[in-house]
Automatic annotation (TrEMBL):
This is M50 family metallopeptidase. The keyword Transmembrane applies. The chain crosses the membrane at residues 16-38, 90-112, 118-136, 143-160, 166-185, 215-236. Keywords: Membrane, Transmembrane, Transmembrane helix. Pfam families: Peptidase_M50B. The lineage of its organism: Bacteria, Bacillati, Actinomycetota, Actinomycetes, Propionibacteriales.
Length: 244
């Protein structure tokens, strides 16, 4: 492996060069994403959404001035993020809120890099991000999941063709957006159970702000819907240009 090899694999793709083949690959990728957010597949694939959810908490907390101390993803696809700072206030609210919208935001970004031809450099950056996150992993399963994410991102970056890279970005983006919706739906359906156990981000936000948990759940819906709308619009507009 030489420097020229690395640089060549970081090259972007001209969006104007997308063809019918790319659109067909994207369509299959979206169909696969839909299949993965329904039972029984969801029980095996939801861990990917959990990773995005927990990284949302982590990034939200860090950007709001808190210190990240631990990331954990469990075998049952639940997770927890620990940050250090004041137990109340703006930073804690941002950290608590950022989890549920994070998968849809990540999905929107994935679709954006696909349609803009940035899939290759984005995969390279993503592999580095997952590798850095290993510093805060606090369980063997978390390390295993993050290593799998590093390996998948790096392999696609190094060996994947432009069509495969953009198709994967679209598929992962669609899955994260749909998975974000599924996570919010599941939380809404089990809100009373979560309230009794104190495990819902919406209930935690209600405790922090005295704003009803239903309002916070509504904000998760709106943020996820906005990301979904943006992803659909970008895919549609790019597909129309490619097929013209």
């Amino acid at each position: 492996m030489t420097t020229d090899d690395v640089i060549s694999r970081l090259a972007t793709t001209d969006p104007a060069a997308f063809t019918t083949t790319d659109v067909v690959v994207w369509a299959f990728a979206v169909a696969a994403a839909v299949a993965m957010v329904v039972d029984p597949q969801w029980r095996r694939t939801s861990v990917v959404v959990t990773v995005a959810h927990e990284l949302g908490h982590a990034l939200g907390g860090v950007f709001a001035g808190r210190k990240l101390t631990a990331l954990r993803v469990r075998l049952d696809a639940s997770g927890v993020t620990h940050t250090r700072g004041k137990s109340s206030g703006f930073g804690m609210v941002v950290c608590a809120w950022a989890g549920y919208p994070a998968p849809a935001v990540a999905g929107l970004i994935a679709v954006l890099v696909a349609v803009q031809g940035w899939a290759a450099p984005a995969l390279f950056v993503l592999a580095i991000v997952f590798a850095v996150c290993l510093l805060w992993a606090r369980s063997a399963f978390t390390v295993l999941v993050l290593l799998a994410c590093v390996a998948a991102s790096a392999a696609l970056w190094w060996w994947g063709s432009e069509v495969v890279q953009s198709g994967t970005a679209v598929g992962v983006g669609a899955f994260l957006v749909l998975g974000g919706f599924r996570a919010v739906i599941d939380t809404w359906r089990s809100r009373q159970w979560h309230r009794s156990r104190g495990e819902s981000d919406a209930v935690a936000l209600e405790t922090l702000t005295r704003v009803p948990a239903s309002v916070w759940l509504g904000s998760f819906w709106l943020a996820t819907a906005a990301c979904a709308g943006g992803a659909v619009w970008m895919l549609w507009a790019t597909a129309v240009r490619a097929l013209a």
